[in-house]
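General statements about sequence and structure are easier to judge against a single worked case. In the encoding step, the backbone of a single protein was reduced to a row of integers, each denoting a local shape. The record that follows shows the chain in one-letter code together with its fold in token form.
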Amino acid sequence: MGQETSAKPSPTAAIVGIVGAVLAIIGSFLVWAKVSADFGSLGQGSVSVTVKGTEGDGKITLVLGILLLIAGVVLALAKTRRLARGMAILAIVFGVLVVAIGAYDAANIKSKSIPSGAGIPQELLDLIKISIGPGLWVVILGGVLGLIGGAMGISSAKRLSGGGAVPAAPDMGGMTGGGTPSMPPPSMPPPSMPPPSEPPVPPSGGPPTTG
């Protein structure tokens, strides 16, 4: 008969993944880029504009953050290796995608903030300064934590049984503590019985005569 296991994955993996998901979601709403320009040389004032993540690829990281959050919650509640491992793998995938999108936007922050077809003269573009906003770094950090949480979840899932049950060890009635079957003591042969004694035979004839 199989006996059910009450083992659960380490809560640390799920917590790390959930924290990463929350950061990815929050960072998607924050400022990803700051655009500033000083047109004093042209007799104009300075201009400063912020670009939030949801105005661009932040919509994608928002969805990925929600999916990462779901994977982290299910990982925390998983009781079988298959489910825990599956959620951990999904957390890694979502974390990698969040990091990839964040890193790509950070490397191409200028083209992401100012479209190439905006029709801005080159002399004005030279006056524009673009810096990465805090939201982009928060998103990247969230993706990294989601990736780490997924990796920890895979390691933690190894302690769970495959289907929630562990087969019981076979009953080896005569097994000793070291795993070697104990041999029964050799049977002793029954003690030999002496042959039954015969009753004495009386002498034939009468009593001996004396001369």
